[in-house]
Amino acid sequence: MQFIDRTRVIVKAGDGGHGKSAFRREKFVPKGGPSGGDGGRGGDVIFVVDQNMNTLLDFRFHRKFTAKNGENGDIKNQYGANAPACYVKVPPGTIVKDEATGKVLADLTEIGQEAVVCKGGRGGRGNAKFANSANRTPTFAEFGEPGEAKNLILELKLLADVGLVGYPSVGKSSLVASCSAARPEIAEYHFTTITPVLGVVKTDYEKSFVMADIPGLIEGAADGVGLGHDFLRHVERTKLILHIVDASGLEGRDPIDDYYKINAELKKYSEKIARRTQVLVANKIDLPEAQENLPRLQKLAEENGMKFFAISAATREGVQELIDYTGEWLDNYVEEPETEDEVVVYDENEEDPDKITISRNISGELVVSGTNIEKLVKMTNFLNDEAVRRFQYIWRIKNLDEKLREKGAKEGDTIHIGEMEFEFRD
């Protein structure tokens, strides 16, 4: 199965249903009055974690998700039905980012966890809602509020307890294959493994942990060299790092130099990863060339305060001791508090919705922008005279004429608000 861990999707919440403009006309009911009902709320777009997914492959073929619109209001004060939410299944470990701002909208790690990434628009109010002592028979109703629309970036960070890092061909895949049911491709050339591989390792009858082979780490990985730039993010979720080195040095590399180069890349990518607990694992000790490097590697581990294991993934020598230690370490592991400022749960817009900004477009025409004023334009029925008068009243309350004059608006100038154009009259 192809492994996809980053993709772009388009989501659109449902629009609110339109309010109804109607009057009650029944026999024996004098002066029935306005009776138009409100529209229903548009459906939200909600991401939910599904335990049966482990990759973002599905989003390669299905990139657009749209919730249904709310139903329109009806006569006799009947409200339109609210639209159901559009649920989008994602694998555990998915981070949802707004493509426009780069802001993290949700960090989805727990099975069943949900996050609203796009809110549906509220239903427009029917004319019954606008009746008051000054206007007992309003003839206008609101259009439904448009639902939110966003372009999102989905990033998958694998949820593994233990991550294996090291140069290509040091035996990471062999170790995963020797202690789990995973069967990654194993060969003598570099970059045999081009996607992360997960394996479940049993420590005893009831306990187990997940081990991830993180491929492609070489010098320059944090800058995009090799495959490391694509897969370094998967190390962030791990609790313990097993740093694998080739003790034999058969490829002409010094295992101690390898250790320092890989750690430099981890630190360059993330200080948080660089502080993660590491265990130094010298692999391929079944080869005669490995014996002269073992004392140097043992000394390196002692100098850096690391636990050291000498193993052979091919013959399984020392592998069980490594598994036992890893399982015991994970049993005593205490979760660190989340300190990343960027990881936040979806919240309301931080900007003041009443704030109005006036600027000029590329043609030199004035553009009025602001959350509430743009919603007002979209929800106003400009074919109804009463609705237009209400819009003009709100326009005057917001003192928009004076603000436009300050920006140089003159008689006959075109004013843009959202998709609507207005002619300025002084």
Automatic annotation (TrEMBL):
One of its GO terms (biological process) is ribosome biogenesis. It is found in: Cytoplasm. Its main location: cytoplasm. Its EC number is 3.6.5.-. GTP binds at residues 166-173, 191-195, 213-216, 283-286, 312-314. Residues 1-159 form the Obg domain. Pfam families: DUF1967, GTP1_OBG, MMR_HSR1. One of its GO terms (molecular function) is magnesium ion binding. Monomer. This is GTPase Obg. The lineage of its organism: Bacteria, Bacillati, Bacillota, Negativicutes, Selenomonadales.
